[in-house]
Automatic annotation (TrEMBL):
<keyword id="KW-0663">Pyridoxal phosphate</keyword>
<protein>
    <recommendedName>
        <fullName>Histidinol-phosphate aminotransferase</fullName>
        <ecNumber>2.6.1.9</ecNumber>
    </recommendedName>
</protein>
<keyword id="KW-0808">Transferase</keyword>
<comment type="pathway">
    <text>Amino-acid biosynthesis; L-histidine biosynthesis; L-histidine from 5-phospho-alpha-D-ribose 1-diphosphate: step 7/9.</text>
</comment>
<dbReference type="InterPro" id="IPR001917">
    <property type="entry name" value="Aminotrans_II_pyridoxalP_BS"/>
</dbReference>
<comment type="similarity">
    <text>Belongs to the class-II pyridoxal-phosphate-dependent aminotransferase family. Histidinol-phosphate aminotransferase subfamily.</text>
</comment>
<dbReference type="InterPro" id="IPR015422">
    <property type="entry name" value="PyrdxlP-dep_Trfase_small"/>
</dbReference>
<dbReference type="GO" id="GO:0004400">
    <property type="term" value="F:histidinol-phosphate transaminase activity"/>
</dbReference>
<dbReference type="GO" id="GO:0000105">
    <property type="term" value="P:L-histidine biosynthetic process"/>
</dbReference>
<dbReference type="Pfam" id="PF00155">
    <property type="entry name" value="Aminotran_1_2"/>
</dbReference>
<keyword id="KW-0032">Aminotransferase</keyword>
<dbReference type="InterPro" id="IPR015424">
    <property type="entry name" value="PyrdxlP-dep_Trfase"/>
</dbReference>
<dbReference type="InterPro" id="IPR015421">
    <property type="entry name" value="PyrdxlP-dep_Trfase_major"/>
</dbReference>
<keyword id="KW-0368">Histidine biosynthesis</keyword>
<dbReference type="InterPro" id="IPR005861">
    <property type="entry name" value="HisP_aminotrans"/>
</dbReference>
<dbReference type="InterPro" id="IPR004839">
    <property type="entry name" value="Aminotransferase_I/II_large"/>
</dbReference>
<comment type="pathway">
    <text>Lipid metabolism.</text>
</comment>
Length: 348
């Protein structure tokens, strides 16, 4: 049975969070003399002299409308990477606790574990890129605090079997993080709908992929109110800057355009897969629920270097476990995809 107090670090239980000027006053005022800001403005066309909303209320309310989740169940971070790091700092005692990773997967889970001096226990995916549930269960001990599952998975592109994730959620006393950075491109439904069912579930999403806002660095975590309260207590007071909040809010009004892009991208992905299969050096193309494809080739490094020579950059994943000989190729615009295919025709 999940009890947040059983896995929360003692120092975090007793932590008194920093109280900012904007935490202490709610509402609007005509004169702000509380935060030592520059009252004259900013040397820009738009003024950014005031500190941003520390809890990003307007952005969360708009996300609440889109996602169907109460704002109190939403955490916003400086990219999903901040949410990952805060989970480590909140629940994992350095040098004592461990987390479980299921490679091949997103590399920042392991980087954050190393930064926080937390053991990362690896239970590789199966040959079909699915969870080894039995292996994960055997790797869990009393100090296992987090399990990270990326679905659709990066770099493989496939969605993880939903029943396997639910089996772990029902039987693990720590937190399971389901990273859905690519969920907008997937046929699978989001795990956000399961938040009321599983108190130990954290779902991460991002505005970096389908929403095209990678440069703004806005990541999302959805979880129970008690987990979100912990994350808000640990985060820096003003972790999302004012420009990112304003632009994110503006972008979140354009759902129709984003949905149109997603539809076009998925059509381009299907066309790209069909064309790539014609090349002799392509051995396999794995099914994808993301905006990229994993392509197994006869010479990943050689093809990568060849494309670099023409100014085309893909990702060589050939040194990643279970991805030997593979390139990860992001689906581009129709023109970009065509240029890629024309260039590959020159490869010998």
């Amino acid at each position: 049975m999940f009890d947040i107090n059983n896995i929360l670090r003692e120092n975090i239980k007793n932590l008194v969070p920093y109280s900012s000027a904007r935490d202490e006053f709610k509402g609007e005022a005509s004169i702000y003399l509380d935060a030592n800001e520059n009252a004259f403005g900013s040397p820009l066309d738009k003024a950014y002299n005031r500190y941003p909303d520390p809890m990003q209320y307007q952005v969360k309310m708009r996300l609440s409308e889109i996602k169907g989740v109460p704002a109190r169940n939403i955490f916003l971070g400086n990219g999903s990477d901040e949410a990952i790091d805060i989970l480590f700092r909140s629940f994992c005692n350095p040098g004592v606790d461990n987390v479980i990773l299921v490679p091949p997967t997103y590399g920042m889970y392991e980087v954050s574990a190393n930064i926080n001096d937390v053991e990362a226990r690896k239970v590789p995916l199966t040959e079909e890129y699915q969870l080894n549930v039995e292996g994960i269960s055997e790797a869990i001990d009393k100090n296992t605090k987090l399990i990270f599952i990326c679905s659709p998975n990066n770099p493989t592109g496939n969605s993880i079997n939903r029943d396997d994730i639910e089996t772990l959620l029902a039987n693990f006393s720590g937190i399971i993080v389901v990273d859905e950075a690519y969920i907008n491109f997937s046929r699978q439904k989001t795990f956000i709908q399961e938040l009321t069912e599983y108190a130990n579930l954290v779902v991460m999403q991002t505005l970096s992929k389908a929403w095209g806002l990678a440069g703004l660095r806005v990541g999302m975590a959805f979880a129970s109110e008690e987990i979100i309260e912990v994350m808000n207590k640990v985060k820096p007071p003003y972790n999302i800057n004012e420009a990112s909040q304003q632009l994110a809010l503006q972008a979140l009004q354009n759902t129709d355009l984003v949905n149109l892009w997603i539809k076009e991208l998925l059509a381009e992905r299907d066309k790209l897969v069909l064309k790539l299969k014609d090349f002799d050096f392509v051995l396999d193309i794995y099914p994808s629920d993301a905006n990229f494809i994993l392509v197994k080739t006869t010479d990943a490094k050689g093809i990568y270097n060849f494309l670099v020579g023409y100014g085309i950059i893909v990702r060589d994943r050939s040194k990643v476990e279970l991805c030997q000989g593979s390139l990860r190729i992001t689906v581009g615009t129709p023109d970009e995809n065509q240029k890629l295919l024309e260039t590959l025709q020159l490869y010998k």
